[in-house]
Task: structure prediction
Amino acid sequence: MTFSFSATPDFDFLNSFARHIRAEVHDNVLEIPKHLGHGYIRQIVFGPDFEVTLHHFQLKEDLIIRRNASAIASDLITVFFYSNDEPLAITYNNNPQVQFSARGNSAIQVTSNDLSSVICFPAQRLINYMVIAIRPDSLKEFISIDKPSSVLETITGNGSSFLFFENMSAETKLLLKNMIAINMGDMLSNFYVRIKVQELLYHVFYKLSLREHANQAINSADISRLLYIRDEIVRDLSKPPVLRELSQIAAMSETKLKSLFKQTYGTTIYNYFQQARMEEAAFLLKKGKRSVAQVGYDIGFTNLSHFSRLFERHYGQNPKRFSYS
Result:
């Protein structure tokens, strides 16, 4: 099943998707029909410039949501939170897929409204994700800083293209879990959710504000190249990235590539590679039922002591203990 839409300023996702699957919305909640699966999509509107959509469902067939950038300009800021460990595939502007999962650097994505995207939701998998849509003026009011960082200025500025990725902290995971569990029949539930959504935004934008700079202009073409470079970095985790080769692929100078990559992903190319290696190692140790040595060799370590030290630095315990925990 494929659902396509254009992201116009007045687009109503919940009711449009309900019409697509021939279901009805009651009190801003779409219950998934039993012949399609189970679960719900809930929309909570706090005002004309601020709303949140909670997705909690499992479908019997694959769902592809295709979001097309509209020719009508919109300054909407969108923040995605995906709290499942199993990755989804998300594509921006027909570029290589980003693995969207709670255990990766891409669990949280902050994007401008001028990018097209495609998200693939596999059948028979429980999906938990949340989308916050907010306009710059409302976000500025929440943040209320006289001299915001360059990252925050980019996000709240008019006409800027941007795409930022963040990982999922323990606090964020707990907030999302509590929001899913709340009884929406409680008369103060919307009040509670609004507080928690603002708390989520605080965690995201606090981390983004710590990034060194975002004063280098970025456009959709740059974002496309960065997504491709990110795909190249994680394609083979047994081989460290070579900056010279990546800059040639991106058709950027090494200086520009390093700067834009850190601006978008919040870390250097090499640190991103190392973190991806450790996340893959953790996944293989938990799900792949392989020995520590096998995992270390698979991701390119010839010195297992070095692998163990790096892994412990990331996860607080050595690989062998982690595999049994």
In short: The chain has twelve helices and 13 strands.
